[in-house]
Design brief:
Blueprint (H helix, E strand, L loop, with lengths): L1 H8 L3 H14 L2 H32 L13 H15 L3 H20 E5 L3 E6 L4 E2 L11 E3 L3 E7 L6 E6 L7 E6 L4 H12 L9
Antiparallel strand pairs: 1-2, 2-3, 2-4, 5-6, 6-7
Helix pairs in contact: 4-5
Length: about 200
Amino acid sequence: MASALLAILQPPPQNRRVGEATRELNGSTFSGRLMTCRNSIRRGDSRIISAALLGRRSGRTAKRKTLIPDPDYRIPVVLLGSAGGLVYSGNLIPAVPVGLLGLLLLVQTTRVRFVFDDEALEVKVGEELRESGENVFVGGKNRWKYSTFVNWELWWPNFPILVYFKETQTKPEGQIHFFPVIFNGKQLYDAMVERAGPSKTSRPK
């Protein structure tokens, strides 16, 4: 009776072989490689996810768009009008330099552009935005990085006619620049504040 009961409880020979084969497979090199491969895939997934997140973050630090203030003809028109008034009143001598200055600024307004790119202010020429060449007064390229700006001012806020800035790119002790405001004063002011920092002057009206 006992031997019959033991015979019933013992698994059939085929089942024993399957169990032994399964244990051998679990302890084999193949099983170890399978687990290693699975872990590598998981690590690879984490690397892919990390790379995707880094890509999204780097995409947020895109370059700032280029700003180009519109031309403004008010100053040359005022000068030419003043020259005409001087001629009408018989003051020909002062009318000549005033008229010539007005004519010069009129031409410059049609061709000179202030270009504020991501890292520097550059003076360019024409609708094609060609390079303006070397600065005839202080030398060097007409391009100055915002990081070198010491200070700048816009005179006068209500009717801006002159923009001034000082930079250390041209020479370490600082180089001063003056430009007539032949651009939209508000656009110029906003661009200077955004790219070069705040000024002591108030916003143009």
